[in-house]
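Hi Q.,

Before the meeting this afternoon, I wanted you to have the D-malate prediction in hand. No need to reply - just skim if you have a minute. The sequence and ligand are here:
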Amino acid sequence: MQTQTINGIKIAYERRGQGTPLVLIHGFPLDHGCWDALAPLLDGQADLIMPDLRGMGQSGFGAAGAPQGAYSVADMAADIAGLLDALKLDRVFVAAHSMGGYVAMAFARAYPQRLAGLGLVSTQALPDAPDRKAGRYATAGQVAEQGVVVVADAMAPKLTANVAQVPDIREMILRQPAAGVIGALKAMAERPDSTDLLAALKVPVAILCGQADALIPPDRSREMKTLIAQAVLTELPGVGHSPMLEAPAETAQTLGGLFS
Ligand code: MLT
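Predicted structure with the ligand bound:
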């Protein structure tokens, strides 16, 4: 992986392929490794930039240490913009999974001129309902006391409908630092409603969801489609929350369709 210091934080990223610049933003509580099956299917046509969000994967460590406390999706979007500055990329396609989608929407809000097109994978425009928000803070407290294993046990089975993938996903979650998991939980809890933003988007948009998603119901994707006139919605039967892991070929085809 390569790194850049962005906003005082070491941001790690993998870059591969040639063609249209496409930033892939991972979800919670994962890192850029969630794109491993998808990347070889797109790198013939895309210059893939796959960061680890602050505090996740290999980002946020080094001399400055892991950023502590709450992050915001706007902070994470600013990290992406800073990374693009460092890579001298002005305008890019962005595709993002779940929490990554919240970050991508924050990016679209703050840097509309830099967004060429948007892929929204298993995500939603709505903010947390009060009970969900309270649950995030409760989970953050548990992680502080007991470690990331709490989240790994609870979430790994929900992240895929393919039970054979659960052990690998659990391992990926266990690699995440507690400070980063806590920071991301708080960022998700405090994220804004992005409904207005989606309705104003003028760029190509691809929405993708698994019909067997146990974390974010497919209705959230259908609602986003109704907000964005030009959006294309793809639903994958039998696929759960992580289409890039469960159905990489279909996911690559959908995201590649944004620019090819
Ligand atoms: C994710 O997969 O990124 C998260 O589960 C999304 C969420 O909890 O809202």
